[in-house]
Write a structure and sequence with these properties.
By secondary structure, this protein is mainly alpha-helical. Helices cover 51% and strands 5% of the residues.
Length: 338
């Protein structure tokens, strides 16, 4: 397929294309200088290893493989627009977000390249890397045992992530971690990483096995399959919608109802709620948007109206949606009211 053709296709036609058949590359794109920035940061620290980067279906470092997968959609403006339209956001779209994510993945790559996770002190401070990843985790927002780098207190999810987050904070140019974290328990981890990186300065890694990116990329599928899977991943824990809650927020009583149907009201405020809830909870916009869609459908089925005597409906609705999403972040479930 010629490059001048594929990016001009409409969404539906593009969905039928295999991602691996698209002429995508890192060289010459806007992400290449950002990868080079990572390499310079590592070089400035005296570190020799440059983790190879490849296009994949998500941000990740294959287990045991010191290489970094970068989402394919970041390699072309047409695919960034499609991701934004379909999922409502583009992970790593800005320069700062990209660098935060790639520094994190570099932490994984260094752990594998130098077998750092096997060291007794590593295991003592971070835990066992062989620990199974939980389906969900309950973060402790005020814990000082972990650094804060990516959203949703990601360092608390697994020992590997704890190390990668600590590495990313340590690597970030200009980060004053010695003063910010001095009174935190996480300071011990940062000091350990600082000493650990000093110990491998100028040393080549033992684990530099060649690998085939295609074996890990997950791109040998059609774009429509990719988005079906991604949507399902974000949707799989959606709740049943809570009639009791909705009947408190709105009403079907002719004597109490106002002149606007609840589903029309929710459609009207949906963009603002999506923006504010995503900003405060850091949850995926697609998840919140689908939550709103189901709320709209359920209020329509129940025949609910806004209450004529309620003056704080915008605040109450936003608070309700935020409470559902916050509970989901902490428990993996949207809480059913009793």
């Amino acid at each position: 397929m010629k490059e001048k053709q594929w990016y001009r296709l409409g969404d539906q036609a593009l969905f039928e294309r295999k991602i691996s058949d698209l002429p995508l590359k890192i060289q010459g794109t806007t992400i290449e200088p950002l990868i080079n920035k990572l390499y310079k940061e590592l070089k400035d620290r005296g570190l020799l290893f440059r983790p190879p980067c490849f296009l994949a279906d998500e941000w990740f470092c294959p287990v045991g493989v010191p290489a970094i997968g970068i989402p394919f959609f970041l390699s072309h403006p047409r695919l960034r627009r499609l991701e934004q339209k379909t999922i409502l956001e583009v992970e790593g779209n800005t320069r700062s977000d990209f660098m935060k994510l790639i520094r994190h993945e570099a932490g994984h790559a260094y752990s594998y390249a130098y077998s750092l996770y096997k060291k007794p002190t590593w295991r003592k401070l971070f835990g066992s890397a062989s620990k199974e990843y939980p389906e969900t985790y309950r973060p402790r927002p005020y814990s000082r045992s972990y650094v804060i780098h990516l959203e949703n207190w990601y360092a608390q999810s697994h020992p590997d992530e704890d190390f990668a987050e600590t590495f990313a904070v340590w690597l970030t140019p200009g980060h004053r971690w010695k003063s910010k974290y001095r009174s935190w328990k996480a300071f011990e981890k940062l000091n350990y990483v600082d000493g650990l990186m000093r110990s491998i300065r100028g040393k080549a890694p033992k684990n530099q096995k060649r690998f085939n990116p295609a074996a890990y990329s997950g791109l040998n599928i059609k774009l429509k399959t990719y988005y079906l899977r991604k949507k399902k991943l974000y949707e799989e824990s959606y709740p049943d919608f809570y009639d009791k809650d909705l009947n408190i927020l709105f009403t079907a009583d002719p004597e109490q109802r106002g002149d606007m149907k609840a589903f029309r009201y929710l459609r009207k405020v949906r963009p603002n709620i999506l923006k504010s809830v995503a900003e405060w909870t850091k949850e995926k916009k697609y998840t919140i948007d689908q939550l709103m869609e189901n709320l709209i459908s359920r209020t329509k089925e129940l025949g609910l109206y806004i209450r004529k005597d309620r003056t704080d409906l915008d605040v109450q609705t936003s608070s309700y949606v935020t409470s559902l999403v916050t509970n989901y972040l902490f428990t993996g479930k949207f809480k059913r009211s009793k």
